[in-house]
């Protein structure tokens, strides 16, 4: 089993529980770790996961859906990736909300989930 990482995918989305988060939106960053079988694989795109298609799926969800919690967004992304890409054996999704409306100084807030194919 191998792992492919797509890190730092940035999108503008409208996620959050506060009404202004839905109206104004903010920047979200997504990190993905995709578990795929490497051994015995050839050197063709059809034998792995198409990174561009993964990016497009994540972009569609983050930009065009609305979730109140980044935990729900991360969980939805993990499920959608497993459903869309049969070669994936598992996925770990981390959704960062670097500008979360928290009073005080902080560097980052993120939610992470990991799912495997059943």
How would you sum up this structure, described in words?
It is an enzyme of class 4 (lyase). This protein has 118 residues and is of the alpha+beta class. It has a single domain, classed as 2-Layer Sandwich (GTP Cyclohydrolase I, domain 2), CATH 3.30.1130.10. It has three helices and four strands, in the order βαβααββ. The chain has helices at residues 19-24, 51-64, 70-84, and strands at residues 2-13, 26-36, 90-96, 110-116. α2 packs antiparallel against α3 (70-84). It starts with a strand and ends with a strand. The mean pLDDT is 92.
How are the SSEs ordered, and which strands pair?
Elements: E1 2-13, H1 19-24, E2 26-36, H2 51-64, H3 70-84, E3 90-96, E4 110-116
Antiparallel strand pairs: 1-2, 2-3, 3-4
Helix pairs in contact: 2-3
Features:
118 residues, alpha+beta, four-stranded antiparallel β-sheet, single chain, GTP Cyclohydrolase I, domain 2, 30% helix
- Which fold does the CATH topology refer to? GTP Cyclohydrolase I, domain 2
Low-confidence runs of at least 5 consecutive residues? none
CATH architectural category: 2-Layer Sandwich
Percentage of β-strand residues? 25-35%
Helix percent reads 25-40%
Shape: elongated
Helix tally equals: 3
For the largest beta-sheet, the strand count, sense and barrel status come to:
4 strands, antiparallel
Total individual domains: 1
In short:
By secondary structure, this protein is an alpha+beta fold.
């Amino acid at each position: 089993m191998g792992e492919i990482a797509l890190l730092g995918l940035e999108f503008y989305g409208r996620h959050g529980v506060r009404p202004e988060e839905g109206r104004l939106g903010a920047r979200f960053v997504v990190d993905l770790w995709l578990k795929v079988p490497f051994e015995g694989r050839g050197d063709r795109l059809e034998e792995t996961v198409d990174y561009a298609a993964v990016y497009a799926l994540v972009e569609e969800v983050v930009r065009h859906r609305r979730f109140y919690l980044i935990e729900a967004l991360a969980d939805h992304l993990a499920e959608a990736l497993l459903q869309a890409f049969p070669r994936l054996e598992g996925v770990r999704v981390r959704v960062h909300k670097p500008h979360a409306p928290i009073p005080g100084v902080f560097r980052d807030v993120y939610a992470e989930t990991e799912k495997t194919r059943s």
